[in-house]
Amino acid sequence: IHHHPFSWSSNEPKILGYSLEDLLYLKNAQDFLEWCALKNIPLILHGHKHVPRHVVEPINVDGRWRTIQSIGCGSSLGAEDGPLSYNILSWHPQTQNWSAAFWVDNGKATGFTQRYISVSNTQSN
Fold first, then answer.
1. For 78, how many CA atoms within 13 A lie in the half-sphere containing its CB?
2. Structure-model confidence comparison of residues 83 and 104, the more confident one
3. Three-class secondary structure of residue 63 per DSSP
4. Which pLDDT belongs to residue 20?
5. For residue 68, what is the enclosing H or E element?
6. CB count, 10 Å around CB of 44?
7. With the CA atoms of 16, 19, 24 and 26 taken in that order, what torsion angle do they form, in degrees rounded to the nearest 10?
8. Other C-beta atoms lying within 10 Å of the C-beta of residue 125
9. Mean pLDDT (whole number) for 91-104
């Protein structure tokens, strides 16, 4: 999806009474997250903020807890003066888990460095 489904705490200044969070956050995000939990969708990919990000949150729907995770994509063009970055997602059939590698360059052409996260596919009951 485009907009981010988990709130992004931010101290960004307001423009015409709105913060960037107001413009970038997914409308009806809680409804969407509950729908994902009901459908056993454990992983959401999103962009829009241009910062590599991993969020893990428990969602209670119908009295059952499900873990929803999201991976936010960075910016391959260094948008908004952010670092150049890209993500590589991998599926591991043996463990039924995803992993994500965030590759980030500081924008000074010094090379990309890699940061890993592991995303579990297990659901909480």
1. 10
2. 104
3. coil
4. 64
5. strand 64-72
6. 19
7. -100
8. 6
9. 83
